[in-house]
Specification:
heterodimer, A: 229 residues, alpha+beta, Sortase, Chain: A, 8 strands, 25% helix, 26% strand, B: mainly alpha, 2 helices
Chain lengths: 229, 52
Amino acid sequence: MWVGRFGRGLSELLMTAGVLVVLFLVYQLWVTDLFAARTQDRLHHELEQSWSRPAPRVPVPSAPRTAPPPPVVPLGDGVAILRVPRLGRDYAPVVVQGVSAADLRRGPGHIPGTAMPGQVGNFVVSGHRTTYGKPFNRMDELKPGDAIVVEVQDRYYTYRVSGSEVVTPNRVDVTYPVPKHAGEVPTKSLITLTTCHPEYSASHRLIVYGELVDTTAKSAGPPPALAVG
Amino acid sequence: MYAWLYRHLPGSGRVRPLVAALLLLGVVALLMFVVFPAVETVLPNGQVTMGS
């Protein structure tokens, strides 16, 4: 009798554990995508609203002109829209500011302190390879020459993929203004995308490098890379 | 365990399945919105940026 009750309690416990595991998988593989899709919709909306307001006028400096300070974007807010023709016309995740776990749940994150889109230096963006809408799931398909278009308020920055590689997670040097060259003063505008590799693993990172090749005003329509082909 | 829980749920024969369903829904919501988001931060697939 006692053994029977004990056995039943144990089997219920084990079944509960099994159900929990399945629920967690459902959460990871499906529910996080739903969360991210909702957040991305909201981010698109917010970005469109803020872009429709006129840009703050930069006063004409009388002193020798230095680079205007980049606009400060609060953590978690939208920075730009990423478009990669190779990944389809519907691929347009909003890049948010910051790479904390909370930021990355919202979308690919721009590492604060690295260059802003189009600036000289390295615009570094990290994104989920799996879960939360998996924005960087297919980064491994990018080939040299592929376009990466970064859309900001008034222009499109077209970068071309220059290469990609798989590195260990400690290689912070890929995010330097001149990747892998500490302390070097950048002269080019670069983009670097990072995500985990292989999928579902933290053992390595997949890095995609690109270089700015074209800057077009939005008023002139979408850049050639996004034109219907 | 579950039989004991069910027997101790409030409500009569009619309402009890409803109470049980609500309770289950609450537990699932708690898991999806609180427990799992906290647990997943230690999972490897969230680590996409550089730094050890």
